[in-house]
Amino acid sequence: xSRWDVFCDQVICITGAASGFGKLMTENLHxxxxxxxxxxxxxxPLQAVAAxxxxxxxxxxxxxxxxxxxxxxxxxxxxxxxxxxxxxxVNNAGLGSEPKLLTEVTEEEMDLNYNVNTKxxxxxxxxxxxxxxxxxxxxxxVLNVASMAGIGAAPMLGAYAAAKHGVVGLxxxxxxEFGRQGVRVNAICPFFSPTPLVTQEGGLADRMDTLKKSSxxxxxxxxxxxxxxxxxLMSPTNSFMNGQAVAVDGxxxxx
Length: 255
Ligand SMILES: NC(=O)c1ccc[n+]([C@@H]2O[C@H](COP(=O)([O-])OP(=O)(O)OC[C@H]3O[C@@H](n4cnc5c(N)ncnc54)[C@H](O)[C@@H]3O)[C@@H](O)[C@H]2O)c1
What we know:
Elements: E1 11-14, H1 20-31, E2 35-40, H2 43-53, E3 59-63, H3 69-83, E4 88-91, H4 107-134, E5 140-145, H5 158-178, E6 183-190, H6 196-199, H7 208-213, H8 223-234, E7 245-248
Helix pairs in contact: 1-8, 3-4, 4-5
Bound molecules: nicotinamide-adenine-dinucleotide.
The site of nicotinamide-adenine-dinucleotide (NAD) has 29 residues, from helix 1, helix 4 and helix 6.
């Protein structure tokens, strides 16, 4: 038994499940008895996550580039074909950007950020909600993983900030468009957390101390602290929260 057993039998698609928040969420939801379509652009680590769960009855693992609409459509279709429905879509996949001033950001970096971090979430909302509305008992929940960079300035991370603000815009719009039909759409906006996105070389590793000190709690958030809130936002018992971009930031956005 898990304290998240409210997710037992729920059919959940998670993108970016091979690492960081997505992997941890997958492990928690599997322990709670959920039926999962887990996906990632990186096949090998994704298959390792699936192999560790060793549960072909409740876990389907699929390679998916969220910037490719057909790939995203395919994971939603897999939920329907394999488990008969989709209850929850977690648009978690994302990538960071090399820290630099906006004057140095290239068009390619802007495009990549937009294609993966914004358009990937758009495809996830579009196909998940279509499926949720077509079901016998219409309804469901979408959780988008935005960032603190989606609700405020993100110095040196301009391309990422633009893309994540887009995620918050999509979240609020989708919440309004589909709320009456029983679909809730929310976003989480985490502060920095030591997942590979932040700790890998070429990422923000060199700036970790500065990042920690800029926070009212003088530390980053642990991935477990982020996933705790993600599960709360997704939970079927959290039935009246809709269109919110929830900061999990140790108080950073309160300044
Ligand atoms: N870690 C942080 O500090 C932090 C803070 C705010 C928001 N976020 C967001 O959290 C989400 C998860 O990131 P994380 O911190 O767990 O990082 P992570 O790098 O550990 O995991 C991200 C996963 O997304 C996958 N991915 C990247 N591009 C993809 C694509 N095109 N299609 C499918 N999968 C793709 C990666 O392969 C990886 O497995 C991201 O959206 C990120 O922007 C992270």
